[in-house]
Design brief:
Chain lengths: 404, 404
C-alpha cells in the first residue's frame, strides 16, 4: 500500500439503538480529529439511507465537549436505519464515496452492517479505489461472531437485571405468576442476564427460557406449576425469540408483520407475554397472572448503563480509527477477553466477512440441562460486563409468637 | 384523652408497590423506637391478610442500619395485599388488635387503606377501646385527596420521564409511530409526567392522553396523522385508563378480568397498546408502528427514584408516629405545598374519611384545551417532585454542502 492515504472520512450508525452506541461514534470522531490524513469527518444521517441521499453532517466542527455529552446519550445520534442495500444501491454508494473523496468509512452496527461494509469494500477493491472500510460492533443481542461480547450488551443486561430485581420485589409484595418478555431474537444472552437479579435464595427469575432451546408449552406449564406450588409465586423470563420444536417462533402464532430483512416483528408488541399469561391462567387456574414486555426501554433507557460497556464502546470506535490510519484496509473490531483472573479485554481487527455472514447463539455451557435456567459459567461470564447492581435490602423478619 | 397511651404498635403496607414505600416504613419504625410508650413494634405481613392470620414480625429488633437499607429498596418489605376487609373481618381484626394490645396502628397505602383504617378506628371507638389509627399515604397514581402530591408519585414520574426520554431518542433513530402506555387508572398525573422528557423542540411525547378526557378514536388518529406528516414520526403517551365518551375504559374492549375491588385489570398486559398500534396501522397506513406498555417497572425499578420523593416518603412515616405519640387519635398524613417560590412542603394530619372515600383527578388547569397535552402549570407543578433528569446531548449537525 505504501504511503499515507489522504482523504475524507464517513461514519454512520445502523440497526437497533443501544445505550452506548454514541460512545463508539465519539471514540471514532475524537480519534480521527488527531490524524491529519483524515481531512474532513462526515457523518451520514440514518446510515445507508443518508449515504444514498447524501445527507451528511460535518463532525469535525463538533466540539469535543459536545461529542462527550452525546457519547453519554442513548440511541443513534446520527439516526439509524434498518436497510440492507441492494447491489444497485451499493454501486450508487460507491460512486458517492468517490464523489466525496471518502477514503475512510466506519459503520457502527450489527452483522448486517458488517456485511454492508464488506460489500462496499469488495466493490472498491474491484474498482481499484483505495478505500478503508471498517465495522464497529454494537448489539444488545450480543450475537456477533468473533467477539467475547459486544458493546451495548452490558448496559442492556444491566437494565434487564435491574428491571427483574424490581419485578421480583413486586412479585414478592403481591404474589402471583409473572411473565417478563426480554429482547433477543436468536440469542438468549439478554434473557440470561436476568439471572443477575437474584440475591436472596428465593429471588426470581425462577425460570428462564432461551431461543436456543425448544419451548415446549406442556413442559413450561409443568415448570411453572412446580415453582408456584413451592413458593406461592413464580417469576418467569422468556426471550421474545423462543421457538417451538420445529424452530418456529412462538410469537408467529399471533404476529404477522415482517421487517425489511424478512424477520417477524417481535418487539413493540405485548402479544407474546399476553399469550403466555393466557395459557397459564387457563391451564393452571392460577389467580394473579400478569405479563410485561420490557420493549424498547432495554436499549434506550438513559442513565442506566454499565461503566465497562460504556468504556469499551468508546474504545472500539477509537481502535477502528487507529487501525484505519495504520496499514489496515478493512476489518471489524472484535472484543476479546484475556484469560486473566481479573476481567480485562483487548481489541482485535478481524476480517469483515467473519462477522458479516452469521450470528452466534449462547454456548451450551451457559444453559442448564433442563433448558430453563443459566449455569454458573454464564454468571461468571456476565457479571464483569454488567458491573455493580443496586443494593437490595430485606427486613430480617424476626417472627412474633402467636398469642392465645 | 389525658395521660400517655401505652401499648404495642402495628404497621402494614397495602396496594400496589412504589419505589419509596419502604422509606415510610423505615421512617415510622425508626421514629417509634424513640418513644417508650410504644412497647413492641410489629409488622403485619401482606397487610390485612397478615393481620387476619396473625402473621407478625418484630420490627423493634430490626437494626436501624438494615431499616435504612430496606428504605432504599423498592416495593413492600412487609408484603402487600389487594383486599378490603368485610365487616366481619373488621370485627375479627379488632379482636386481634385487642389480643395483641395494639394501641398504635399505621397503614401505608392508597385511599382503600385509608378506608380500612377509618373502619377500624370507628369500631374501636364504638367499643371504647383506645386505639390510635393512622394512614400513611402512598400511590404512584397521585390521586389521594387532601394532598398536593403523594409519596411514590415523584419517583414513578421520574421513571416514566426517563423512559420516554430514551424512547424519544429511539424514535428519532428509527422514525415511526410509537405508542407508550402508562399506568394510572383514573388520574392522568403519571402519563402527564412523560411531558418532562422534552428537552429539544421536536422531542416527544408529541401527544398525551388522559383518563380525565374522553378518548375519541377519530380525533386521536387525526392528531397522530398531523404530527406524523410534520415530523415524520410521532411518539404518543396514553394512560392505561383512557375512556370513551360514555366513560367506558378503552381497555375493556378486550380485557375481561376484574380485581378484588371490581376494577378491570389494566396493567400486566400489552393489549391496549397493541390495540392502538393496530388501529393506527390500519387507518393511517403508516409503516413502522410500535407499542410498549411500561408495566410494573414504573413502580418497582430499583435505583431510579426522586430524591425529594424518597425524603418525603420517609418523613410522612415519621410524622404519622409523631402525631400518634402526641394527642392525635386518628388521621391521614397529607403533603401540603407551601406557597413559596422555592419548593417546600409541610405535613398535616387530616381526618381519615376525607382521604378514604374518593380519589382525585388531574385539575383541568393541567390539561390543554385539546385534551392531548399538559399545560405549563403542570410542568411547574411536577418538576420539583421529579428533580434532576439525565442530560441528553445532540450533535450540532453542521450540514455538508452536496457535491455535484
Amino acid at each position: 500500500m505504501g504511503g499515507v492515504l489522504k482523504g475524507n472520512m464517513l461514519i454512520a450508525q445502523s440497526g437497533g439503538p443501544t445505550v452506548v452506541i454514541n460512545q463508539s461514534l465519539a471514540g471514532a470522531v475524537i480519534e480521527a480529529k488527531k490524524h491529519p490524513q483524515i481531512e474532513n469527518i462526515y457523518g451520514a444521517l440514518h446510515g445507508i439511507k443518508g449515504i444514498l441521499e447524501e445527507e451528511f453532517v460535518d463532525l469535525k466542527k463538533e466540539p469535543v465537549n459536545n461529542l462527550k455529552k452525546v457519547a453519554q446519550t442513548p440511541c443513534c445520534a446520527l439516526g439509524s436505519v434498518r436497510k440492507k442495500p441492494t447491489e444497485e444501491e451499493c454501486e450508487k454508494i460507491f460512486k458517492i464515496m468517490q464523489k466525496y473523496n471518502i477514503r475512510y468509512f466506519f459503520y457502527i452496527g450489527g452483522n448486517d452492517s458488517a456485511e454492508t461494509a464488506y460489500i462496499l469494500h469488495q466493490n472498491a477493491k474491484k474498482a481499484g479505489y483505495e478505500f478503508k472500510c471498517f465495522h464497529i460492533p454494537k448489539t444488545i443481542d450480543n450475537d456477533l461472531k468473533e467477539n467475547d461480547h459486544t458493546p451495548g450488551y452490558g448496559s442492556a443486561a444491566k437494565f434487564v437485571a435491574m428491571a427483574v430485581m424490581g419485578d421480583n420485589l413486586d412479585n414478592l409484595s403481591l404474589p402471583g405468576i409473572k411473565v417478563d418478555v426480554i429482547m433477543g431474537r436468536h440469542a438468549g444472552f439478554l434473557v440470561a442476564a436476568t439471572s443477575l437479579a437474584r440475591i436472596y435464595k428465593d429471588d426470581g427469575p425462577h425460570l428462564i427460557y432461551f431461543p436456543e432451546r425448544p419451548f415446549i408449552i406442556d413442559k413450561f406449564l409443568q415448570d411453572v406449576e412446580e415453582i408456584y406450588k413451592k413458593l406461592g409465586r413464580c417469576l418467569i423470563c422468556v426471550s421474545e425469540g423462543i421457538c417451538d420444536e420445529k424452530g418456529n417462533p412462538i410469537a408467529t402464532k399471533f404476529i404477522r408483520e415482517v421487517d425489511a430483512f424478512g424477520n417477524v416483528q417481535l418487539s413493540g408488541t405485548g402479544a407474546l407475554g399476553d399469550f403466555l399469561a393466557g395459557i397459564i391462567k387457563k391451564e393452571l387456574k392460577a389467580g394473579r397472572v400478569r405479563a410485561d414486555t420490557f420493549g424498547y426501554l432495554q436499549r434506550s433507557f438513559p442513565g442506566v448503563y454499565s461503566e465497562v460497556d460504556a468504556k469499551e464502546a468508546y474504545e472500539v470506535g477509537e481502535f477502528a480509527v487507529k487501525c484505519a490510519v495504520g496499514k489496515d484496509m478493512e476489518g471489524s473490531v472484535a472484543i476479546k477477553r484475556k484469560e486473566t483472573k481479573k476481567y480485562s479485554v483487548y481489541y482485535q481487527l478481524v476480517p469483515l466477512e467473519k462477522v458479516a455472514k452469521e450470528t452466534r447463539s449462547m454456548p451450551s455451557k451457559f444453559i442448564n440441562r433442563e433448558g430453563n435456567d443459566v449455569t454458573k459459567a454464564f454468571l461468571d461470564y456476565a457479571r464483569p460486563l454488567v458491573g455493580k447492581l443496586p443494593e437490595i435490602g430485606r427486613i430480617k423478619g424476626y417472627p412474633v409468637r402467636k398469642r392465645k
